[in-house]
């Protein structure tokens, strides 16, 4: 009986943490991702570019439109403990979707990690 209780408790904890981590939020701050002062932190020093691509691939336009994106370069050095050099650079992507007349500029920090949110005007695919 004791083993069964332990298994039930562990199963409950695992299922709760999975549900919680599956939550995808949309940012309420209009500068999130759109300014170099408030980049999207996707983390992963050696996997940073792959994390950026994975994040961008998970987004859509406000009505579910497919996104098109292209890395346009790097900018804006900053200090970080998560780089072997103690410094990092932000990656800059140009993003658009069908019906959008102009492009959006998104800034990414590939060194530091915070659970990313969808920038205002975009959403996560279902």
Structure, described:
- With 126 residues, this protein is of the alpha+beta class.
- 24% of the residues lie in helices and 29% in strands.
- The strands form 2 sheets. A 4-stranded mixed β-sheet has the order 1-5-4-3, with helices on one face. A two-stranded antiparallel sheet has the order 2-6.
The proportion of residues in beta strands is: 25-35%
Q: Whole-number radius of gyration?
A: 18 Å
| Distance separating the two termini | 40 Å
Order of helices and strands: HEHEEEEE
Helical coverage, percent range: 10-25%
In terms of quaternary structure, the protein is single chain
Q: Averaging pLDDT over every residue, what do you get?
A: 84
Query: Tally the helices: what do you get?
Result: 2
The side-by-side strand order for the widest beta sheet comes to 1-5-4-3
Q: List low-confidence stretches.
A: 1-22
| Largest beta-sheet characterization | 4 strands, mixed
What overall form do the CA principal axes indicate? globular
Structural class: alpha+beta
Number of strands: 6
């Amino acid at each position: 009986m004791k083993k069964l209780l332990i298994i039930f408790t562990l199963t409950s904890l695992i299922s709760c943490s999975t549900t919680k981590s599956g939550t995808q939020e949309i940012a309420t701050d209009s500068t999130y991702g759109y300014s170099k002062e408030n980049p999207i932190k996707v983390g992963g020093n050696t996997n940073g570019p792959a994390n950026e691509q994975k994040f961008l691939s998970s987004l859509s336009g406000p009505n579910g439109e497919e996104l098109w994106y292209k890395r346009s370069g790097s900018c804006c050095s900053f200090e970080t403990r998560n780089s072997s050099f103690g410094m990092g650079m932000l990656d800059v992507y140009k993003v658009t979707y069908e019906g959008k007349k102009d492009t959006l500029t998104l800034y990414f920090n590939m060194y530091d990690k915070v659970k990313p949110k969808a920038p205002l005007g975009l959403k996560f695919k279902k």
